[in-house]
Amino acid sequence: MKKPTLVLVHSFPTNHIILKGLIDYLKRYFVVHYIDLPGFINDIPPLSSVSIKNYARYLEKKIKKAGIKKYWLAGISFGFIVANNVHDEDCLGIVAIEPYINADFLMLPKRKKILLRMILDIMSRLSFEDTLLTHKSLKRLLRYGLLSEDYPADQLHTMKATINPRALIETGELILKNKKRPIFQDKPYVLIINKKDTIVNSKLILQLFSKRVKKLIVIETTCAHFPSEIIPEYFDSHINKSDMNALIKYMRIVR
After folding, report:
1. 97-154 confidence digits (pLDDT tens)
2. Rg (alpha carbons) of the chain, rounded to whole number
3. Which of 88, 125, 181, 208 is the most exposed place for a label (fewest CB within 10 A)?
4. CB 95 within 8 A of CB 32
5. 3-state DSSP call for residue 80?
6. Count of C-beta atoms within a 10 Å radius of residue 200
7. pLDDT at position 149, please?
8. What are the structural domains of the chain?
9. Is the separation of the CB atoms in 40 and 10 below 8 Å?
10. Cα torsion for 160, 163, 168, 170, to the nearest 10°?
């Protein structure tokens, strides 16, 4: 039987290069199309004005240009809020993977949020042509609020080498300032969540989806929000195969 088509939107601050292991894992179950947001990969310059709406319009244009039909749109963390603002009749449903909802749904303590906003504000005042996104500054920025101390150095190097500093800083500011709650579409949703997620408040997210979404399937995993290794074997050990098979079945029958 033909695999469902999945369009994947990455998390912050990643891209398809960093998420290659996840994409390879998903290809076992789906026909996968990945789309990098502007500024998060070398050959796509950042948006002139960073906003969720502008990211969503960019995504709509890329999907249309690629001619992708009858697909499920998946967003990882920040990628979800972008995907949820895409309006396309060919989109069969939305897959929310450890979704970012708004700043109030982040698990970061108030002190860390303030520190992050201060760091981003200082960085935004510097010249983007300077050595702004040095390995040290990126490491400090991310580890203040997102990544563990054992996060692989090669992943940090890939972020530095492929992500535009302005896109990273302005999107980070957006994530920390956004207070709007999503308006859910009249489509089926899939929520993939780790109840012990340390970045987003999974309890509040589950409550929100259960209350606002009419057609919903929830897949529980033990995946870290930022895995220390992004390889297919990691996802094999943290996502039940039976749950993935149930997800595929749901996608084929739900309307």
Report:
1. 999 999 999 998 887 777 777 777 777 776 554 444 554 566 666 665 556 556 777 8
2. 17
3. 125
4. no
5. helix
6. 21
7. 56
8. 5-103+182-253 (3.40.50.1820), 110-176 (no CATH)
9. yes
10. 140
Q: How far apart are CA 32 and CA 30, in angstroms?
A: 6
Minimal CA–CA distance to 184: which of 207, 220, 205, 209? 209
- Spatial CA neighbour of 40 closest among 62, 64, 73, 69: 62
pLDDT tens for each residue of 89-107: 999 999 999 999 999 999 9
Q: What is the percentage of the chain residues whose pLDDT exceeds 90?
A: 69
Residue 57's CB is within 10 A of a number of other CB atoms, namely: 16
CA distance 64 to 62: 5
Tokens 């709509």 locate to 60
The CB density around residue 114, as the number of other CB atoms within 10 Å, is 12
The answer to whether the CB of 62 falls within 8 A of the CB of 40 is no
Which pTM was predicted?
A: 0.92
Q: How far is CA 218 from CA 62, 98, 252, in A?
A: 28, 11, 16
Q: How many residues does the chain have?
A: 255
Token pair 């150095």 is at which residue? 153
Q: For the segment 37-84, what is each residue's pLDDT rounded down to a tens digit?
A: 999 999 999 999 999 999 999 999 999 999 999 999 999 999 999 999
